[in-house]
Amino acid sequence: MSDKIKLDIVSDVVCPWCIVGYKHLEAAINELGLQDRVEIEWQPFELNPDMPEEGEELRAHVLRKYGAQREDSDKARANISALGAEYGFEFDYFDGMKIVNTRDAHVLLDLAHEQGLQHRLKQRLFAAFFTEHKDVSDRAVLLAEARSVGLDAGAATLALNDSERRRRVENQELLWQRQGISGVPTVIFNRTSAMTGAHPQASYREVLQELAGL
Hints:
four-stranded mixed beta sheet, Glutaredoxin, alpha+beta, 9 helices
């Protein structure tokens, strides 16, 4: 039996391709029966680190940042929704949907990692934002989601107010950026190779097969 395969997944909770890419990766892991041989750690990345507290309407955001007109935006939403549905994830875009600041979300994910609950919280936050119309920059929302996966509310509140932890998360983001990661999702395999973008299930399967010696 080989050692466990370490997967660092650099992503943001408001990145639709991050959850699509993960679902493809998850399917590859399940297809190969590697559930007990894979160790996943989610690493922080902020698509919009300077996003103000009030957030920005999503259509206005993609127009400003990417030059995408409404027709382009509609096509992109339909495409990503179909890809999500194929792998069991529901995207429910709505009028007035905002892109928001995710620094607090990454702080809670750092705490959750220490308690073995990071993966559950990450999946919960993806669903909260993309499926359930929740504002994942709202601390009340974040604390409720943290409690739902088993995190202590008091510990979560302390973490959100902990300037040292916040600096550590910021430094982790910078560390990955200095290693050349500028797009997400990026999956790093055993800290030796990486794939950026939401690759198909077959592509992840090929890499995992080689690492697992299958």
